Description:
Layout: H1 2-5, H2 12-21, H3 26-63, E1 72-77, E2 89-90, H4 103-111, E3 116-123, H5 127-136, E4 139-145, E5 150-159, H6 162-176, E6 192-200, E7 210-213, E8 222-223, E9 226-230, E10 232-238, E11 244-245, E12 252-256, E13 265-269, E14 276-282, E15 285-290, E16 297-304, E17 318-319, H7 334-343, E18 350-358, E19 387-394, H8 402-416, E20 421-426
Parallel strand pairs: 19-20
Antiparallel strand pairs: 1-9, 1-17, 2-9, 3-6, 3-8, 4-5, 4-7, 5-6, 10-16, 11-12, 12-15, 13-16, 14-15, 18-19
Amino acid sequence: xxxxxxxxxxxxxxxxxDRLLEVTDDTERxxxxxxxxxxxxxxxxxxxxxxxxxxRRMLENSSQAKEFFDVVSTICPRDKLIAYEDTxxxxxxxxxxxxxxxxxDVIAHLEEKKECYCYSAYxxxxxxxxxxxxxxxxxxxxxIKTEDAEFEAYFILKRSKKYGExxxxxxxxxxxxxxxxxxxxxxxxxKMIDVYIVDASYPEGDIIESMEVDFExxxxxxxxxxxxxxxxGKKIIRSSAYPAFEVDQIxxxxxxxxxxxxxxxxxxVANDQVEYWNVRKESGDLCIECKEVEPVSWQLLxxxxxIKCYYKDAYPLMSNAREGQADNxxxxxxxxxxxxxxxxxxxxxxxxxxxxxxxGNNWKxxxxxxxxxxxxxxxxxxxxxxxxxxxxxxxDKSNYLNGDVLSYVVSCIQWELREYQCFGKIL
Length: 427
């Protein structure tokens, strides 16, 4: 009986009548008729209705244009952020806050033989020079000025890690929203440094008015009050109506109507305290399934696509958007690899020349870094893999971003070809 319910041309009324004709006793036939009318027919109608609802939802979702969640990043001076007209936002919101450092706080750290964070800065130089800076572990001499005096101090530089934490959080949000992750092109955050005091001598109680560090040969490349930004904003919207039962009659659908959303933005749900799943768009509305019976204040990430800027000296926007937005390129042939590299839209920086198989375990040239470093554990790559060397030619050999763009390309290919160790080289 159960298998026939789901046949394509199943007629419940005919099925009931046929079964009744098989019963010879009038009393049993009447009882069976009552049972069928009170249970079987309503049950079948309920099942059909739910299947139609599910089928309609699947057809709507498949017919909609696929949304791609492109992340755009750049860097700008603190006082120029307003020029982006609320389409770009600090990756780390605390960068907008003024850093007020007290002498007593510095002394407390130094007495415990701990370095004391001062501020962050941007180093406008290429990847290889930055690598040398990290490897040298140098101490730079400087001065600390208070209201009444000036004192000598020593400083060290470290690669800033706080931006990587934000990328990891974004990655986890993508996973919770069932959105495929694509490597971010974020070269600017990899040029951010944190400046720490490691040694100084001065009286207690004064407020530090300024600090001057002699960065020696890096002095002209250090820029202050620079903030890495991306097109990921934050918004809180409460469910627009009381949640409706889902098909399973157990969970609930929360709806945020399209009138509350921007047409030029994509949205990710980022609530940490609410368990949710199956975030989807239906007729422009954002639908979220969860177990919550009451309306919820949903924390949304708002990804802006229409970036506006009126800052004439703005740094180039770096995006992980792909040409044609294809994700199904066959990466097992040279033609497939060339097509993928072409989709990454880096031709204004690099021109692909060739690919070589190499011994990855003995390759010594370290020309790139992983832009997936914050989520490196997700790659699950094994050692002792064969190597692939991607060779490019720079469009402008003097562009300090060439090595970072190469690192982005290699990171994208590495994400998809995990059975290889991928390397890059610029001729």
